[in-house]
Every structure is written in structure tokens, then in C-alpha cells.
Design brief:
This protein is α+β, with helices and mostly antiparallel strands and 439 residues long. Among the domains are: 29-103, no CATH class; 190-276 and 347-438, no CATH class. 25% of the residues lie in helices and 21% in strands.
Length: 439
């Protein structure tokens, strides 16, 4: 039926000479086919954004799978492109999960193979198996070098055993308990709740440093400082609602105030951690002939790390600041070198979006500036899963507190010392999404 209809040039020029069973073409799609169409819709949206110059630079993977995952991390798995057909749109009851991490195979050039004469039937064959011999093998497919075969080919995540950790019951007596924000269902505030709970903990722990380094970082930190001051009569939720309303007026698509659509955490952090005083230069030069191929500036202290899980946040970030690139100078052919500088001073906070959940979280990050090392300390982690954000707060004493505005409300639950937790990258079934450090 599909083949016959596909031969027609138009609906008006097609005539059905007899009836047919509509179930033949209305039986619904398999999960595999629906997922394929959904991923194609995302690829179409990526192509459109790139054509119009609206695609961020960090959406730059070289394979379809990794490109889709970068887009999902950027927009959130609940985001549906505007022009997706209603039969393909996903939602909470029919979700599209974050595609699983895969190790991309590295490219390598193959040398010309020697031909050998097979003793069987005198055939001339290469040392490698032919396509026919691979097709007739006991395996139905071969895994690309450097990758691993998936056990399942669907988005049914199945049951995954989680390690239970013993949680201490008492925190450092000298440290105050962090205060969280109560989730608001009418405007789906979990992204704001998680971020502001972490920032509020920084302000409460070190009010003098906050006043000196954070309060004038940008207009958003000024709003938070005024709302959290001792003279203010506003609650934490009032300050959050003011922030959400201000951002929604500025960009209602990225910061909606709706009970159906949540906030894009990437867009929220990009906005909150950007400032005109934060001048970060990126220069790509040839160290042989001094040719400069790129000299750009950014004003955001929010970074995306997309490396493999073999390295820590510290190692990946420092490598990103000063490294040799896999590109050649157009003038002399030497490798190009990238150097990132903070001008004139370092920002008071650094935040990282992690596309690889296996990246090691370091308790501190050391950054060199003017010949001396400046240390940033881990202050909090935001987790995502099931269309919901939660957070962990890390105090200067190394105490870890868990917060979920939907279930714990204003209370933060003490979990123990940072160096005692078995795995900081998971929290109640949700995966690590953003990590926040401060001076």
C-alpha cells in the first residue's frame, strides 16, 4: 500500500478503485521507527539553527548520535522542536530519553593491503574478510573499533541496581543547615530551586565575600543580593519568582512561566553566569609563524565539558584553557594552539555543564592567573532525571546536603562528608548535569 501511494505525484491525481482495510496503514509505528523519526526531527532542527547562525558553538559533534545528545543536554530531553508533527511529539507520558553515551571510534588511514591467494578454490582475497563472509558469520553485525556493542536497541532503560550508601546523621555543628526553596508546580521552578539553593548557601556561609565578589557580578546577582539581605522582607521563593518573571519577560521561550513547560537549565546558567565584566578571550595561533586564525571573546563563566570520563573536571578544564588543536596552520602547516585568558580578573564563580556523566568531580579547581594559582571550591551539583532537577549543596567544611524542592521543600537532608560519599555523580536515580565552583 505504501509503495503504491508513494508513486503518486499528488493527492488530486490519485484514485482508489476499491476499498481497503485502513488498519493496513493505520496500525501505528514501532518504537524503533518512532524513535528514528524523532531523532531525524532533532537533526532537522539542528540543521535549521546552524543555517540561521543560531546554533551554539558547543553543538559540534562529528557523529549523529553525539550531536543529538549534545542538543538534548543543551535544550533538555523534554524540549520538542516547534515543527514536529503531533504524532511524533514527546511528553511526560511518552518521553524521549537522553540517548546513551557511546565512545566514538577514532579515524585512521588504512594502508594498501597485500593480496593473497586463498588455498580454497584459488580465489584472490585480501587479508581482511569480505563483506559476504562477514554477512555469513554467526554474528549479525560487527562492532566498530573503539566502541562496544549495545545489549539492547531501544530506550527501555530497564532496571539498574544502585549501590546503597551509609549516610551519617550529624553535620559539622559549627555550620548552619542550608535552606532550600519550595517547588512551585504552577511554574515548574525546579531548575531555579536547585541553582538558587546552591547560590544562597554560598551567600549564607560567607556574606562578606559575597558582598565583595558576587553582589555586583551582574544584574541577577544584584537582585539576589538585595532579596537575600537581612533588611529584605522577601522569602527565598519571592526572590526566585522575581528572577523567573524577569527572565521570562526577557526570553519567554527559554524561560517560560508555565505549568506544562519547564525551564532550560543550560539557558538559565548561561544567563545567570554571564557578565560584561567577565571578559574571557580565546585566541588560536600558530606558535611557529605567529599567525592568528581566531580571536574571540565571551562573557560567560559557564562552560560545557564534553570529554571522556577518563579525566576529571580539573584536567579537562585546564586542557581546554591551553592546548594544541587538531588543525594545521594555513600558512606553514604547523599545529595550531588555543589559549584562553581571563581579563582582567577571574570571575567569582565557575559552572560546568557535563555531557558525560562519568566525568570525575574534583573538590577543587586550580586556575593560574598572573603567575599565581587561584583555587575554586566545589559548592554544589545539579542533577536531572524524570523531567525534574534536584541539587546537592557542598559547604566549606565538606558537608554535603541533598535538596529536592518537590519532596524536601525548604529542608536540606544531610548526607555526610564529601570525601565519604561513594559516588557524587548520581542522586536518587538522577544524573549529574551541572557543577558549580566558587572562590
Amino acid at each position: 500500500m505504501y509503495t503504491c501511494l508513494s508513486r503518486g505525484a499528488s493527492l488530486d491525481g490519485t484514485v482508489l478503485v476499491q476499498g481497503f482495510d485502513p488498519r493496513k496503514i493505520q496500525g501505528g509505528m514501532t518504537g524503533y521507527l518512532r524513535q528514528e523519526f524523532r531523532e531525524l526531527e532533532i537533526m532537522d532542527e539542528i540543521t535549521t539553527l546552524r543555517y540561521h547562525g543560531k546554533l551554539p558553538n558547543h553543538i559540534n559533534a562529528s557523529t549523529r548520535h553525539s550531536l543529538i545528545r549534545q542538543y538534548q543536554v543543551w535544550k533538555g530531553v523534554e524540549h520538542v522542536p516547534k515543527h514536529v508533527h503531533s504524532s511524533l511529539r514527546w511528553n511526560k507520558s511518552d518521553p524521549m530519553y537522553l540517548v546513551e553515551e557511546q565512545t566514538e571510534a577514532s579515524w585512521r588511514l588504512l594502508k594498501k593491503e597485500k593480496k593473497v591467494v586463498s588455498k580454497i578454490e584459488g580465489q584472490v582475497m585480501t587479508k581482511k574478510r569480505s563483506a559476504a563472509s562477514m554477512a555469513n558469520s554467526t554474528s549479525t553485525f560487527m562492532t566498530a573499533q573503539g566502541t562496544k556493542a549495545l545489549q539492547v536497541a531501544s530506550h527501555d532503560l530497564g532496571s539498574r541496581p544502585r549501590k546503597k550508601q551509609k549516610i551519617s546523621e550529624t553535620a559539622s555543628s559549627s555550620q548552619p543547615r542550608p535552606t532550600g526553596l519550595v517547588w512551585k508546580a504552577e511554574t515548574l521552578t525546579c531548575a531555579y530551586d536547585s541553582l538558587l539553593t546552591i547560590l544562597h548557601s554560598i551567600q549564607q556561609e560567607e556574606p562578606d565575600k559575597w558582598e565583595d565578589d558576587f553582589s555586583n557580578f551582574n544584574e541577577h546577582f544584584q537582585t539576589l543580593s538585595q532579596g537575600w539581605s537581612e533588611s529584605s522582607q522577601k522569602t527565598l521563593e519571592d526572590v526566585r519568582d522575581d528572577t523567573q518573571h524577569s527572565l521570562s519577560q526577557k526570553n519567554p521561550e527559554s524561560f517560560p512561566m508555565s505549568h506544562e513547560i519547564g525551564t532550560d537549565l543550560y539557558a538559565l546558567c548561561e544567563e545567570v553566569f554571564s557578565a560584561s565584566s567577565c571578559d574571557i578571550s580565546e585566541k588560536v595561533t600558530c606558535q611557529t609563524c605567529n599567525l592568528t586564525s581566531r580571536d574571540t571573546h565571551r562573557s560567560s563563566a559557564y562552560w560545557q565539558l564534553s570529554g571522556t570520563g577518563r579525566n576529571s573536571i580539573q584536567a579537562q578544564f585546564l586542557k581546554n584553557l591551553d592546548c594544541e588543536l587538531n588543525e594545521q596552520c594555513m600558512h606553514c602547516g604547523s599545529p595550531m594552539h588555543k589559549k584562553i585568558d581571563f581579563n582582567p580578573i577571574l570571575p567569582p564563580v565557575l559552572a560546568f555543564s557535563l555531557t558525560q556523566g562519568s566525568v570525575k568531580v574534583t573538590p577543587a579547581i586550580d586556575v593560574s592567573k598572573n603567575g599565581r594559582k587561584v583555587r575554586y571550591h566545589l559548592k554544589g551539583i545539579i542533577y536531572h532525571g524524570g523531567y525534574h532537577f534536584t541539587a546537592r549543596v557542598v559547604t566549606s567544611q565538606g558537608d554535603v546536603w541533598y535538596h529536592d524542592g518537590m519532596t524536601t521543600a525548604r529542608e536540606c537532608i544531610y548526607e555526610g562528608k564529601l570525601n565519604e560519599l561513594t559516588d557524587i555523580r548520581d542522586a536518587e536515580g538522577r544524573k549529574i548535569s551541572t557543577v558549580i565552583y566558587s572562590l
